Amino acid sequence: MRILATFRIALLALRRNKLRTALTMLGMIIGVAAVIAMVGIGNGAKAQVEAQVASLGQNVISIWAGSFGGGGVRNGWGSAPGLKVEDALAIQQQVPNIVGVSPEVRDRNQVLANGLNWNTMINGESPDYPIIRSWPISEGAMFTEADVRSIAKVAVIGQTVADELFPNQDPLGQTLRIRDIPFKIVGVLEAKGFNLFGQDQDDVVIIPYTSHMRRVSSRTSVSSILVAAASSDLIDSVQADITDLLRQRRKSQEQDFTVRNQVELAQTATETSKTMTVLLGAIAGVSLIVGGIGIMNIMLVSVTERTREIGIRMAIGAHGRDILLQFLIEAVTLSIIGGVVGILLGVGASKLLAAWKGWPTLISTSSIVAAFAFSAAVGIFFGFYPARKASQLDPIDALRYE
């Protein structure tokens, strides 16, 4: 009951000077709103990065030619002798716990169809490519192993290529020319959008890797090898088996190839996003501290203004802890009201940014709870000193104060 009475007195005291109370809360409102908005933007960016990494495929292991050499010499990917199709076949036959392998040959080239032309990526892949990349076929079907063996002139295209070369038409069964070689379109990939590196994943033509190597690029080695592990728990063991197998096949003392998995890429990208979120939150948190200092300043002024009131309350029986509690509740009330308004403003600002600028935002319950708790803690921390100063006033001196 005493707490409720003290709370009512605190609210009456704050209402005496509405403008000063509102301006004091403004610092807390801006601080909490900034924290909510900045953390929301950071979390949204993190979620977008995770979605983009996931779009590259689940449990994927990538192998490139080239590695880091000894003696201070750093060799980039592709600096060593290229990977062979036989390496991919050996992985497929000898490494357990995998669900797909695709020797990959990549080139950018001009393609012609339907009286139109378009510059796009030409990827030579195996029929396992959609399984490895978790990329469904929206129309038609993927080419087969028989197409790979027969070096067939067939192609599966991305949605961007379909839109550019066959606007308002069905591309299935139509002919696409690569270096004046006709390829029959047998499938269209489901739209995926942009990847982690800002590249349009749908701007691609997929053909059998044998057709790419024999008919299009005249290559004897592949750009890379994609492997899909059966599950995320098996990625490390599959990666180790691949590394051991390639070392045995290449019979080299120095490892001249690089093996990386999608989990490593996801962790690196996520850690970067986490760092950015913490940085944004910390910068915004500074304004919360500034708001707390404003609360302390106003409470000290309030103690000075109400010295005679404090003396009268003590003279009629109020204890020091009652005075302490009254001023502490006033400070916490300022913080909590400011925190609630700040949360609403921060959520609204995040939604507005998402709609106006197209920035991804993700407001989590934990960030709202943390911002609210921190605002209350700021009120207690910065309100304690003025409240303690008020509680330690001498009643006689307070009654004489002018």
What's a quick, concise take on this entry?
This protein is α+β, with helices and mostly antiparallel strands and 402 residues long.
Overview of this structure, please?
With 402 residues, the protein is of the alpha+beta class. It has two domains: 2-52 and 268-400, no CATH class; 97-231, no CATH class. The protein is 56% helix and 17% strand. The protein has 13 helices and ten strands. The chain is elongated and about 105 Å long. The two termini are 33 Å apart.
Number of helices: 13
Q: Distance between the terminal alpha carbons, to the nearest Å?
A: 33 Å
CA gyration radius, whole angstroms: 33 Å
Give the biggest beta sheet: 6 strands, mixed, barrel
Strand order of the largest sheet: 2-3-8-5-7-6
Estimated structural class? alpha+beta
Please tell me the total number of domains: 2
Q: Shape from CA axes?
A: elongated
- Would you identify the regions where 5 or more consecutive residues have pLDDT less than 50? 68-80
Residues in helix, % = 55-70%
- Mean pLDDT equals 82
The fraction of residues assigned to DSSP E strands is: 15-25%
SSE topology string = HHEHEEHEHEHEEEHEHEHHHHH
For this structure, the quaternary state is single chain
| Total E-strand runs | 10
